[in-house]
Amino acid sequence: MRKIQFMALLAAFIGLVSCGKEHKKPNVIYVFADQWRAQSTGYAGDVNARTPILDKLAQEGINFKNAVSTCPSCTPYRASLLTGMYSTTHGLLLNDILLDPESESMAKIYKKAGYNTAYWGKWHVGGPYRLGYISESNRQGFDFWKVMECTHEYMDSWYFDGNDRNRKRWNGYDAHEQAKDLCKYISDHANDENPFLAVLSWGPPHDPYFQVPEKYLDMYSDLTNIVLRENVPEDYKDEALKMLQGYYAHIAALDESMGWIIQQIKDSGIEENTILIFTSDHGDMVGSKGMKHKSNPWDESIMVPFLLKYPDAVKEGRTIEMPIGTPDILPTLLGLCEINTDLKFEGSDFSDILLGNEDEFENAALITNPTKNVVKREFRGVRTSRYTYVEDLTGPWLLYDNEKDPYQFTNLIEQEGNDKLKAELKVKLTTALELANDEFLPEQDYLERFGLYITPGGYPPMNLEFDPNK
Predict the structure, then answer these.
(1) Model-level pTM greater than 0.85?
(2) 124, 176, 206, 250: the active-site residue
């Protein structure tokens, strides 16, 4: 009799423990690169990209085919990721601007929900001192901290470790070393009572394209083997090939690093209850349309890879066609983690679509450039699963049918027969602007509203001197 009672109590205890484990909120590991365009992956069809790890992740997880970098520049993206707000609300319209330390942001919300928080790599929402010490009050709730505000010296890269004002150097290619350090963190915290939020922000494949170990450059030593996108102009091909050698070398190196992270998640026994995301802050023209870098409304600039895996709750092996924008990421992650908050985000929570509780719909992701940075004009637009529609302050500017014209050769804005389509897309843009509380004003209005100054070159002042007291 006593034996039966003991076994019943033991079974009840095991059941309670199991229930406790089942109800532990998922870990979140958010890895994002800098300037990695959506087109430059193997699973997206790029024959140059050596991305076997990401290709497998795309097959096993969820591939957001139309993920849009809403304001495609480093600082605006990061601020929208952290806050779930658009740039015309949080005020970080350009690089090298400080995110309000009082912002209700990602790590603060997760900490209130019982999470440990950690961040590695490039921060770039801490103001103009790119190599300066970032005070605890400006870390937006992240506790574990191995970060530099902004550096692209990938082979000679410095960082600050927590509250130590003496900077340290990563030993070699910083993206590899940061990934290894994340792996150690995963191993050390896999069995903690509390879940963790871990964010890794890589600097590559952002230029300089040749700050990468030689073995990856050697993969692309024969430039004649690199296949250019069809929209690279003839007179730009030589320069594009040189850039792409290093660009793809970085991509191969980062893909290998993702392999280490994924393997560590498996080895630590937390794969089922971990949300893993890989993405990028924005894309890179890298020669397409004869252009470089970002902040443009064309797909190479705004479209980013976005892969998500969460075996416990999300059906795997899916491609989601519905566009999503940067401000949607935080509310969607909070929804997946079942974290309730009274905060009102401008982005949308699409977690029910990921969980299979709702169907996809024809969303229109907003594209913004509130300043004249890079393209020398302010613009707003929408990216649907098929069309790109963009206006500047003078009226309609761009219209592309991305299904028929994936390289965006033909601007349909002045062509006859498109009035109905233009009207429909204008309504989508108007609706998106209303949801974003975006009045679409001239640059100067926003600079005055947020007390910003930009140099004649079009950027806020920055400081590249190292001063631990700044």
Answers:
(1) yes
(2) 124
